[in-house]
Amino acid sequence: MTDYDALLSAVSARCAAAGQSHVLAHLSSADLSSDDKLTFLRSVDEVPIEKLSGYLQGALDEEEKLKSGADDGETIEPFDGEAVSTATTDAAQLATLKEAHAAGMKAVANGEVAALLLAGGQGTRLGYDGPKGMYEIGLPSKRTLFQFMAERIKKLGLLSGKGPKAVPFYVMTSPMNHAATTAYFAEHDNFGIDVQFFPQGTLPALTPEGKMILEAPTSLAVAPDGNGGIYPAMVKHGILADMKARGIKYVHAFGVDNALVKPADPAFVGYCIQKGADCGNKVLWKTSPGEKVGVVATKGGRPCIVEYSDISKEMSERRGADGRLVFGAGNICNHFYTLDFMENVIVPNLGSMYHIARKKIPYYDAGKGETVKPESNNGIKLESFIFDVFPLSKKMAVLDVKREEEFAPVKNPPGSASDSPDTARKLFSGVAKKWATAAGATLAGEVGSDMCEVGPLTSYGGEGLEDLNGKEVECPFSL
Question: What does the DSSP 8-state code read for residue 143?
Fold first, then answer.
C-alpha cells in the first residue's frame, strides 16, 4: 500500500464516521494530479473532523440563547477582584506597584516569563501590503512594530542581568503572513532575541447542517478560527510543551497593533504574581460612557469581557464614589496567564468556546464544474476570542494603565482622526519627551514635534536616561 493509499484509507474512515464523506467525492477525477490529491488529503487530515459537530452545536446553542434573550439568571456586575491603577496617588498602592515591578523583574531573571504576540493581521486597513507588524509608523529610526517589540524584549533581558535572550518571544502568525513574518525576522537575525513562530489555526466553513464546504474539488473553504485560536495552536505546534520544558511559569500575551506595548511588562506580570492570579488583564479606563469598547466585568460571579452593546445605558453611565465609571475597565487585548492555567484549565475546555459567524462562503458547484460566489449567507465560520477563557479563572487581577503611556493603536490609515500611524507617532513622541524631561532634560527647538523618539534599546520604561540631566535636548530627537 502506497503512502497515498494509506492516507486515503485513514481519512475516508474518519470522514465516513463523521458524516463528511462528500468532501472526498472528487478524488477519482482524472483531471486531478496526484500531487493535488495528496495535498488535499493532508489538509483534510489536519481538520479535527470528529469534533466539528460538537463545536457547531455548542456555538448554535449559544446563538439561540442570545437570540431568544433567555435569562440565564447570571447578572452582569462590575469587576470586584484585585485591581490597581498606575495613575494612583495613593501611597500604599504606589508601594504595591513598586513591589510588583520588583517581583516581575525577579521572574524575568529566573527565566519564568514568556512574551506571546498575536501577529496574524495584515496591514490592509493601513494601505500596506504585508504583515501589520512590518509596518513603520514614521519615526526617525524607521523601526517597525515588530522591531519595537523585539527590542523591548531584548532590553528587558539586559535589565534583568540575564542577557538579551532571557525572555522567549512566541509569535503567532497566520497562514497568510507566516512566510513573510519569519523571513523578516530572519533578515534581521531575530533582532538578537530568542523567538519562535507558529501559525494560527483554521477551521473549515460549514453548512447550517454541519457539512464541510468545498471551495474547489480539492480545496476546503477554511477561515482563521479567531484570536482565541491561539490556545489550540499553541498545543498543536508544541508551544505549551516548549514553555514547560524551559521552566516558564508566566505568559504575557498582547496584540501586534500597539506601538507602546510593553512586552513581558514586569509591573503587570509582577502584580499578577503578587495577587496569586491565574489570569490577568491590563486595561484602559474608559473616558466616557459612550466609548465603544468591551469591559472587564463579572457574570454569575465569574470574570468576563462584556461587549459595549450588552451594557444598558444606566450601567454604562454609572459611577463610583471616586467619580470613575463603574463599568470602565476597557479591554485592549493585553493579558497575563500562568502556564498552569493555560495547560490545565484552558486546554481541556477548548471545545466549548466557539461562536457563529454567518458568511457568504464561495462553494464548488459540481453540476456547473465551477466555484460559485453566493449573494447571501450560505455558511458558517466558527471563531473564538482570546478572552473567552476568562470565566474559567479562579482569580483574575486587573492593572489599569495610563492611556497616553501604554496605548498607541495602529489600525486605521494615515490621516485618520484616531488609531492611525499619525496618532500613534504623536503618542510615542509624547512618551519620549516625558521620559527626557523626567530625567532632568530641558526640551528646545520644535517641542511640539511628533518625531521624538527614545529607542527601546536605550530605555524600556524611562530608566537609564540619567545622562540627560541638566542638558538641553533639541526636538525632534532620536535617542
Answer: -
In one letter, which amino acid is 472? E
Pull the grid cell for residue 255: 496584540
Report the C-alpha gap between 248 and 112 in whole angstroms: 4
* Distance from C-alpha of 396 to C-alpha of 417, rounded to nearest angstrom: 34
The helix (run of H) or strand (run of E) holding residue 219 is: strand 219-220
How far apart, in whole angstroms, are the C-alpha atoms of residue 264 and residue 272? 12
Using CB atoms within 10 A of its CB, is residue 19 exposed (0-12), middle (13-18) or buried (19+)? middle
Q: What's the residue count for the chain?
A: 479
pLDDT tens string for the chain (479 positions)? 788 888 999 999 999 999 999 999 988 876 778 888 889 999 999 999 999 999 999 888 888 877 766 556 678 899 999 999 999 999 999 999 999 999 999 999 999 999 999 999 899 889 899 999 999 999 999 999 999 999 999 999 999 999 999 999 999 999 989 999 999 999 999 999 999 999 998 999 999 999 999 999 999 999 888 899 999 999 999 999 999 999 999 999 999 999 999 999 999 999 999 999 999 999 999 989 988 899 999 998 999 999 888 888 899 999 988 889 999 999 999 999 999 999 999 999 887 789 999 999 999 998 898 999 999 999 999 999 999 999 999 999 999 999 999 999 999 999 999 999 999 999 999 999 999 999 999 999 999 999 999 999 999 999 999 999 999 999 999 99
195-to-154, 173, 392 alpha-carbon distances in Å: 11, 12, 29
Q: pTM higher than 0.85 for the full model?
A: yes
Residue 299 has phi, psi (to 5 degrees) of -135, 120
The rounded distance, in Å, linking the Cα atoms of 100 and 266 is 7
Query: 297 with 110: CB under 8 angstroms?
Result: no
